[in-house]
Amino acid sequence: MSISRVGEITKDIIDAIDKICKKHQVTHGEYRKAIDFIGEAIDKGERSLLFDAFLEANVVASDPSKSSGTSPQVLGPFYLPDMPWVENNSLAKNNEPGERITLNGRVLNRNKETLGNAELDFWQADAKGRYSNFDPGVADGNLRGKTKADADGAFLLHTVRPAQYTIPDQGPTGLLLSEIGRHSWRPAHFHVIVRHPGYKMLTTQIYFEGDEYLSSDAVRAASSDLAFPIVSKEEGASLNFDLVLESR
Ligand code: DHB
Ligand code: FE
């Protein structure tokens, strides 16, 4: 009988864990504790965070089906689907605290042809590093929304600058991070998913050039090719970048 893909991968996971147990002479008590630890993280709402923080960047990097335009990035635990379309090209409400910044650029394919009407699904932390629907004190849906590129593939989005931010570090995931000698800071970032018919969906993040945590991201995702300088002009600060999709 042939085994499934899940079966093949499971066999390798078991082999890898077997090697680790032998190497570290793992005791039965430690084994039970590890299971309880994963259960506790899930009970405390860290199901996605625990796995995303330690494993998602590796999976994104090794996925052979990943988009080969703009580098893909982790989705992370704070994405919510089906957010509304933004109004007036504005992700931030008028009274949203923080430094104003405009994101603009074009959605292109790898031949540098513009992809009109591409859909961009943005979410970000606020100026205090809080994500709506996950952190208390923030209105549901805040700084989340979709916008469309125009017929020439150009997008424009007014928002506020997100803060550098620590992933939730008071629970099991934070404990494990510090056990392996990693801090819990992520560089400031915008998340975006880009969709256009006939092209691979792109999940990525946009960073700020010079951010001190680009090279020591807690979730080891950030990449300097996705870090852009703030351009300051009379009409305000902007971050200018193109997003490149690969055809399916
Ligand atoms: C993770 C990713 C994020 O973008 C974030 O804001 C928090 C956590 C993660 O991969 O765990
Ligand atoms: Fe994030």
What does it look like?
By secondary structure, the chain is an alpha/beta fold. Helix content is 24%, strand content 24%. The chain has helices at 5-24, 28-43, 47-62, 172-179; strands at 100-109, 119-124, 144-148, 154-160, 165-166, 185-186, 189-195, 202-208, 227-228, 230-233, 236-240, 243-245. Strands 1, 4, 10, 11 and 12 form a five-stranded mixed β-sheet that branches. Strands 3-2-7-8-9 form a five-stranded mixed β-sheet, with no helix packed on it. It has a two-stranded antiparallel ribbon with strand order 5-6. A hairpin with a 2-residue loop joins β10 (230-233) and β11. The protein is globular and about 65 Å long. The relative contact order is 0.18. Bound molecules: 3,4-dihydroxybenzoic acid and fe (iii) ion.
Question: How many DSSP H or I helices?
Answer: 4
Strand fraction band?
15-25%
Secondary-structure-based class equals alpha/beta
Average pLDDT metric: 96
Proportion of helical residues: 10-25%
Largest sheet: 5 strands, mixed
- The backbone outline, from C-alpha atoms, is globular
Count of DSSP strands: 12
End-to-end separation in angstroms reads 34 Å
